[in-house]
Design brief:
Elements lengths: L20 H12 L7 H14 L3 E5 L2 H11 L7 E4 L5 H9 L3 E4 L11 H7 L4 E5 L10 H11 L2 E5 L7 E2 L2 E2 L6 E5 L12 E5 L2 H10 L33 H12 L1 H20 L4 E2 L14 E5 L8 H10 L15 H7 L7 H7 L2 E4 L7 H18 L3
Parallel strand pairs: 2-3, 2-4, 4-5, 5-8
Antiparallel strand pairs: 1-9, 6-7, 8-9, 10-11, 11-12
Helix pairs in contact: 1-8, 2-8, 3-4, 3-7, 9-13
Bound molecules: pyridoxal-5'-phosphate.
Pyridoxal-5'-phosphate binds next to helix 3 and helix 4.
């Protein structure tokens, strides 16, 4: 209430990156070299990233959005095709389908994992369906056995949106080594960041080749070498490609971040355990379920509030957390509720009931390696305080 002391006098941001002196030194090293855009460090980052996820090939790009776009186009998806995905995702996943001139077909999520419901995928398949883009929400793998089985039956390409899923596993295999193509994001908030950036991994040599060429104007392979010793001025445009390449400045950051990714993961897991134990005791809160076999990368930690046990809705809960000095976010506003999608495709409230049910209840809480244990305890204190004040007695 008025004049009362908040849990935090200094605001705790929802997210902070984990860039430190190693990344800075590596960037300086690149800037002091003669080569700052796509070059040796990008190649090294691709190699190490492919090794980390257990994929044959990795192509670095300037965002996951770019990577998803390339994966679709390089898989031959275009006009007249349909691509199945989840409405419970970031704009990028759905927008790239439109950029590829295909049509997006949404399939509702499971309430426990917030991932696309494989049981509902088959009903959405038509003769025009060419691909599925599952999103591994928060870093928990989708049910890949089910998805791959459906894909095989209907001859569909599986392009995984793994923006949240660096370090994630499914039944002992790392995400990045499973579907035809997997796309990672290195956006500022992600588990591994290069400021902006992304990576596509695949075990398909031809696909990797097409993606690499399309990422740099459709210029024949290794065109970046043309300015070095022994490089040739000659190149050929083999396709009207894009300008989606990663720079060596970004790759410098990525190389250092990749070396720390397991360390980051351990901190995330430790804080998640503290959150899970604390919130598990509150009947007004639903905690995330880690039920898919394999490592959960915990890109996000979220809670769902039970409005029927509270005199406060999700929006007011977020506002109250802000007043306690805690930064939060909402992942995601379902795609079909956004004006463009709603107005263009005639979507209505009620079309994807599970996505909407989750959206009305969800709050993402701070989870990143720079948090201290005290920060985590403060988040818990703030949530408890709000629950205590607003619970229906
Ligand atoms: C962040 C994010 C993206 C987009 O990543 P960019 O690298 O910013 O293009 C795509 N899908 C999901 C689920 C995301 O969270």
């Amino acid at each position: 209430m008025e004049g009362e002391t908040p849990i935090r006098s200094e605001f705790l941001p929802f997210c902070r990156h984990s860039i430190s002196k190693e990344e800075i030194a590596e960037v300086v090293d690149t800037l002091n070299s003669d080569w700052i855009t796509t070059g040796p460090k990008t190649k090294e980052f691709e190699k190490r990233f492919a090794e980390y996820v257990g994929a044959e090939y990795a192509i670095a790009v300037n965002s996951a959005t770019a990577g998803l776009h390339l994966a679709l186009i390089a898989s031959g998806i275009g006009k007249g095709d349909e691509v199945i995905t989840t409405p419970y995702t970031f704009a990028a996943t759905a927008n790239v389908i439109i950029h590829s001139q295909a049509a997006s077909v949404f399939v509702d999520i499971q309430k426990d994992t917030l991932n696309i419901d494989p049981v509902k995928i088959e009903a959405a398949i038509t003769p025009k369906t060419k691909a599925i883009i599952p999103v591994h929400f928060a870093g928990q793998s989708c049910d890949m056995d089910e998805i791959l089985q459906i894909a095989k039956k209907y001859n569909l390409t599986v392009i995984e949106d793994a923006a949240h899923a660096i370090s994630s596993e499914y039944k002992g295999k790392k995400i990045g080594s499973i579907g035809q193509a997997t796309v990672f994001s290195f956006y500022a908030t992600k588990n591994l960041t290069t400021g902006e950036g992304g990576m596509v991994t695949t075990n398909d040599k031809e696909l990797a080749n097409r993606i690499a060429i399309l990422s740099l104007h459709g210029i024949s392979k290794d065109a970046w070498k043309r300015y070095g010793a022994g490089g040739s001025w000659y190149y050929e445009i083999v396709s009207p490609g894009f300008k989606y390449n990663m720079t060596d400045i970004q790759a410098s950051i990525g190389l250092c971040q990749l070396a720390k990714i397991e360390e980051f993961l351990k901190i995330r897991q430790k804080y998640v355990q503290i959150y899970q134990e604390a919130f598990g005791e509150l009947p007004q809160i639903i905690t995330p379920k880690d039920i898919t076999p394999g490592c959960h990368a915990w890109h996000l930690y979220y809670i769902l509030i039970k409005p029927e046990l509270l005199k406060i809705n999700r929006d007011s809960f977020i506002e109250a957390l802000g007043k306690e000095g805690i930064g939060t976010s909402v992942h995601f506003i379902p795609i079909h509720l956004h004006p463009y999608y709603r107005d263009t495709y005639g979507f209505q409230k009620g079309d994807f009931p599970n996505a909407e049910w989750v959206y009305e209840r969800i709050i993402s809480l701070p989870l990143y390696p720079k948090l201290t244990e005290k920060d985590v305890r403060d988040v818990i204190l703030a949530v408890r305080k709000i629950v205590d004040r607003w619970k229906i007695r």
